[in-house]
Amino acid sequence: MTIKKFPSYKGVELITFGTHDNTERGETSKQGETEQQNWTQPIFVFLIKFKHEFSRTAREEVTEIFNTYSENRKILLEKNLVQFLTQEQYSVEMTKTIASEIIEKYEPIEEVKQAHQMSLEGFTRYMDSSECLLFDNKCERTYQNMNHPLNDYFISSSHNTYLISDQLVGPSDIWGYVSALVKGCRCLEIDCWDGSQNEPVVYHGYTLTSKLLFKTVIQAIRKYAFITSDYPVVLSLENHCSPSQQEVIAHNLQSILGETLLSDVLDEFLDKLPSPEALKFKILVRNKKIGTLKETRERKGTDKHGQIEEYEEVEETDQEDEDDDEVKESETEDILKDNQEKEMESKRVAGLPLFKKKRVKVAVALSDLVIYTKAEKFRSFQHSRLHQQFNESNSIGESKARKLSKLQAQEFILHTRKFITRIYPKATRTDSSNFNPQEFWNIGCQMVALNFQTPGLPMDLQTGKFLDNGGSGYVLKPDFLRDNKSKFNPNKAPIDSNPITLTIRLISGIQLPPSHHSSSNKADVIVIIELFGVPNDQAKHQTRVIKKNAFSPRWNETFTFIIQVPELALIRFVVENQSLIAGNEFLGQYTLPVLCMNKGYRRVPLFSKMGESLEPASLFLYVWYVR
């Protein structure tokens, strides 16, 4: 087959594919025909593109790549495509069969497709497709080993899930649970309080937040629990109910959730935590518990109505750490006796931790629904090492957790290797703001609970982190956070790390979002590339400003990162409109784990502050890294 280009006509470029009638190019035939007339057996004539349309869709940077591998700058042969995919896209298992499938899928011109070739239009379609996204499609499926115990995973977790605004006067809404579950959240928080007509309610106690019926919350959870992920959901109950309404809670959990509720120990996991795989399609209750799992099993099938147990709960009241636990108004009702106050005062003078004790009543019916996720008050790493059971988990406020992570990082990691640890926002975050979750993932905390309703950097990191492993809500922790022999400390330079050198050439932007601060909607765009991980890996680079062009800005700037602990690293691309007066305007972002990045020429999709896709807005870049 031969390709013949004719002069353009009225802005239309014509190319004819045909067979030659054995006359040499430039010779006339016996009938005196010209070279152009020698194309006596045309197969087809087709319209490439109107030139103005062509220049709009075929971006200059993509055309340059195409021309590099095309032998005639018009058509990409199958062997040329294989060469491009191997050399530039690092497709190590590339074969002609795969190249042929790409041509079949993206080449719009039937005759070119049949010739096993690719036009610039087809190549552009391929480069703009999901196959050329920065996110590695391997990470889009659940590829990690899901048979480790629960404490070996980072678990997507939400704080005060029922709230969709602030913590004091905002509404409580079922949408809080639905949206969190759709986003892959696997640990939901439910604050339970006595309601009228013996119906427990969910709300932020002693505030003006509105109330939801507990049973309505559970009905919504039952409906949406496994929409996004098959793996277990943990319901973290903050229980302020009387024993009688605790029994109602237990009844609602059993009657609404049915077989999905885990209400008994699994035979294979009598003395160890089960795996996410073993708990597929199960919902677990996290709450206070009376007695042992053995005693729970012995009571199975008996009538527990009216059975109430009491236990003494010890609470630290060290005033120097105001965020040791969330400020719960119920605690303020506890009045210490004179002798307790004197004892505490003497300890305060001596500089010892201060504790107070209170009696807590628990309905046995609810207690027995707590199996592998018993909530246990954290006292110290030493106390946990000596006394904590395998099925007991701790909740620690962000301020105390931050202090411990700086002063006792290795002990903290030893703790999270054995026990599920939940970190939650401090009580002063009444506006539902969030802390940076990265610092607590660095020490292996499994449940780093955030206010899902509040957009911003912390939730971008949360979303990016849990893109991995198929969005299942469970990400296997790195070996050094699971291995008891590891001496890993995120605050120190790793001794035996295997760092990577990451190079990113930011080439261009594609239809970036317009500025809302400009009357012309034309943005002065910059791109910020941020790296999050252990402290030594934190880094940030910024491009130059491209003035008044958000539609097709070109940068061609290269940035390099040395990443010591890539297993914990996240990379975030932020597009902003530069404003010297009001501060930069956020236009879009994308965050993902470093080890989920594809190499080669890649497209970075952008998302709004609220996490909505801004397609076709994206960045075009070249990625290369070596370890």
UniProtKB/TrEMBL annotation:
It is found in: Cytoplasm, Perinuclear region; Nucleus. Residues 296-335 are annotated as: Disordered. Its EC number is 3.1.4.11. GO terms for biological process: intracellular signal transduction; lipid catabolic process; positive regulation of cytosolic calcium ion concentration involved in egg activation. Its cofactor is Ca(2+). The production of the second messenger molecules diacylglycerol (DAG) and inositol 1,4,5-trisphosphate (IP3) is mediated by activated phosphatidylinositol-specific phospholipase C enzymes. In vitro, hydrolyzes PtdIns(4,5)P2 in a Ca(2+)-dependent manner. Triggers intracellular Ca(2+) oscillations in oocytes solely during M phase and is involved in inducing oocyte activation and initiating embryonic development up to the blastocyst stage. This is Phosphoinositide phospholipase C. It comes from Equus asinus (Donkey). The lineage of its organism: Eukaryota, Metazoa, Chordata, Craniata, Vertebrata. The gene is PLCZ1.
